Amino acid sequence: xxxxRSSVWRILSMVLMLALVAVACGDSGDxxxxxxxxxxxSTIQGSTEQTTTTSADLSDLEGEIxxxxxxxxxxxxxxVAELFEEVAPGVFVDVEGPGTGDGFKKFCSGExxxxxxxxxxxxxxxxxxxxxGIEFTEILVGIDGIGVxxxxxxxxxxxxxxxxxxxxxxxxxxxxxxxxDANNITGxxxxxxxxxxxxxxEESGTYDSFIEIVIEDIAEERGQEASTRSTYSPSADDNVIxxxxxxxxxxxxxxxxxxxxxxxxxxLLQVDGGDGCVEATAATIASNEYPISRNLxxxxxxxxxxxxxxxxxxxxxxxxxxxxxxxxxxxxxxxASAAMAETQAAWAARGADVTANESASGSDIDLSDLEGEIxxxxxxxxxxxxxxVAELFEEVAPGVFVDVEGPGTGDGFKKFCSGExxxxxxxxxxxxxxxxxxxxxGIEFTEILVGIDGIGVxxxxxxxxxxxxxxxxxxxxxxxxxxxxxxxxDANNITGxxxxxxxxxxxxxxEESGTYDSFIEIVIEDIAEERGQEASTRSTYSPSADDNVIxxxxxxxxxxxxxxxxxxxxxxxxxxLLQVDGGDGCVEATAATIASNEYPISRNLxxxxxxxxxxxxxxxTAFVDYYVTNGLNEAVASVxxxxxxxxxxxxxxxxxxG
Length: 658
What we know:
Layout: H1 13-24, H2 55-60, E1 63-69, H3 74-87, E2 91-95, H4 100-108, E3 114-117, H5 123-131, E4 136-151, E5 159-161, H6 162-169, E6 196-200, H7 205-221, E7 233-235, H8 238-247, E8 251-256, H9 257-260, E9 266-268, E10 270-272, E11 277-278, H10 282-286, E12 293-301, H11 302-307, H12 309-325, H13 337-348, E13 372-378, H14 383-396, E14 400-404, H15 409-417, E15 423-426, H16 432-440, E16 445-460, E17 468-470, H17 471-478, E18 505-509, H18 514-530, E19 542-544, H19 547-556, E20 560-565, H20 566-569, E21 575-577, E22 579-581, E23 586-587, H21 591-595, E24 602-610, H22 611-616, H23 618-634, H24 646-657
Parallel strand pairs: 1-2, 1-3, 5-10, 6-7, 6-8, 13-14, 13-15, 17-22, 18-19, 18-20
Antiparallel strand pairs: 3-12, 4-8, 4-9, 4-12, 10-11, 15-24, 16-20, 16-21, 16-24, 22-23
Helix pairs in contact: 1-13, 3-12, 4-5, 6-7, 12-13, 14-23, 15-16, 17-18, 23-24
């Protein structure tokens, strides 16, 4: 798939956005090195030859643009076209909405300039485009929810679960003729009323998104193909679907939220995706609280954009004025500023696809020709990520040897700030004193966020007396006042509550570890300050720089207690994770609760790169280019950590290449 890679993120995405705003105000001057591009104190590093049309140019443009695809995205493209034709009256934009799938068929056969899509392109569709020699740019334009609806006359139902929807609409429901029939499949307490169903057909991205979000997991659990029933009334026209829903007092249907929100004669049902009933609103869709939400896209034919100034000018306009003025006007959720900047960077990057043997910094270096050595030291938590990235990199750059070790974040920074290493892995941010050591040695660096981790609090699998610990419990057991604590119950005399009377042996990282520092900062520090104590652990426990040694210790005692990074803890044998209450109730440590920050002991993971060494060593530069693209996409989750969101990945790439 020809999605843009990080080569363009060398140019801050802000450059394109601000340059276009300046152009729209009539300033045709170029933004040059060191010039301020906004009222904010932003300095532009480097320049670009990216072609954007000035406002004077737009009025002179002539040509035609043909857009097809999603009926959901169609209103956005229609509104952008209306706004564009006001400033470029010589350009005619034709927009139609037969459905995402049909749109991609036309796009990949070369019939259209832009394909609107309410889902990402499928691999098979991308392969069709590639076979036809069509390269494209994927551009995120907005966010939508899928509204589940019934007639305004249906007062018997207010909220439906994913299980209800599977039983009513899923692959096992062809014999379901009343709402209550679905109770025999996966529905619960649905009313006994006739059922007529209206929704999009298989050509629609709304259909695909509904299947993926609502049906797929339940179908897999039940050994079924992920699809809808065959016996319902499908249509590619959302207005036809709405008319159907309005025509029956006990109807059920689904359409894009923008169509559903203000439809007469029908109403939106709340949906429970597992966390309770949620009403579909712009706010709950933007926050992802509403469980049936999805991104909206346009796909642009790169070659046609290069050959047609009208098309290039239209997409320039779409990714700036269009996103700001059109998306919310037609009922969709506008992108946050960071996501909007990423969209603008994606368009600026059109055609800049990076192959496996090409440096993602945009240079023409062939990775297979690179030779050299790279030395990485630091956090034992981050070590598995860097090891995996090194393994992947060495597959495409076999002449580069990457040596990774994990003595701990603190020890890693000592080596880094003395010039011994190229990269320092860190499970916390660099401390002021460490940064000063680097500065004193003349070492400038770039801090790069690579993933998210939680700290797992653990005990033996044989310890059934405890399920959840509070921060107060942990302070009483592990904190600076606990040296005399030899049983769990002893901590009740400090800040613990109702801890069991059982022997206590503690295993955890030592002071050289970023996991130690993060645990102190998140769990111990505030309570220690309240009690007038130094923020530290007890001196009487078994510390180790090796997570496997810590796990072995926890496994060795039936009433043990310890803490390690979540990726090490999650699947460890002979031990189990305790829930942790940071003040808002007991929360289990999972990838999902860590990513959402619901689990209270979570932290960011970093690498620090020596800038001078990177400038002098093409192998090191190429390795970090690879780390912030392929590495973040392929390595982080594969070794058990929580992958960054797409917007965060874009910011990471900008931080490195800006």
